[in-house]
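Notes from hallway chat w/ T.B., transcribed later so I don't forget. T.B. wanted the structure written out for a chain they're using in a teaching module, and asked if we could keep both sequence and structure tokens in one place. Agreed to drop them here.
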Amino acid sequence: MYKTVKQNQLQEKVESMTSDWSQFMHDFVFMHKSAQTALNTATCLKMFFEWGMESGIVKKNRISDINEDDIAQIRDVHISQYCEALLDGNGCRQNRRSSISVKLEVLRAFWRYLIVRKIIDSTYNIVDSVAKWQYREEHGNTEYDRRRRAKTPTDQQVFDLINNFQQCPTFDKLRNTAIVMTFCGTGVRLSELIGMDINDVDFAQKTISFMKKGNLRDKSTVPIADTALNAISEYLDYRTGYDNQALFINHNNERISERGVQYLLEKYSNHTITPHMLRHWVGSRLFAATGNIRDAQDQLGHASMETTNSFYVAQNKDRGGAVINKIL
């Protein structure tokens, strides 16, 4: 299965990065069930310790040589210095405040782990010396504010994107249209769409199945709009001679990649639409059509209604009387 293979590839990448790290550091990285989260965590730690060694704060030449005593020598002032280096691009790639905030959360969790496991003799989390608000974006541009705004393309932008596919060769036109219609007719995420196989589409029941984000065992099934089903059917009817069971493929008979989908949306929307913006489009249209936040929550698969509420309720005041099959 595609998602299992992808997870294994990411795990191999994390293992390759951390295989010679101290056992306690290696264990912290692999506490995370998601291989992508483990990779992000390992990358954040790698960046911090490389900066620490370059700055002379960590007296070692390789991360693999860093031990508990080296970490015990790191002070809260060093955390502040690292954040400022990231902000200024001093000795490292310049980071936005929101990126620094993410890295701080990884370091905060790491030091909490060190304290709880008694790997260091301390009860004070040095990362707490950096206030969380300090590296948030300016007011009105925080992560929370961006989430509430949930940038959504207009209907005209979506229609223009699909119309722009008409200039493509037939295979590309039909596949690209089916991809966008699947996004708009279901609200799935990019990673979920990439992992779909042909037999995940149930034309009789008018549903589509996929491995949900963070799930490697059970498939989720959601309704799919008739117009999206028609676009998929037309694409599959034309797609003869390809034996790959992946729903969406490239010209090499390989499952299309996430970057491949991102690229075609960027190209034909003139860099105005991303895959996740189409997911927001579905959520916004569903709430506007029904006035029922649970319809949007169920279709998008949000575990918490609060998440759906923070994205869409503040944006939509209109009421309608339709669900997924009426928004396209």
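Follow-up for T.B.: The longest strand covers residues 207-211. Might be a good example for the class.
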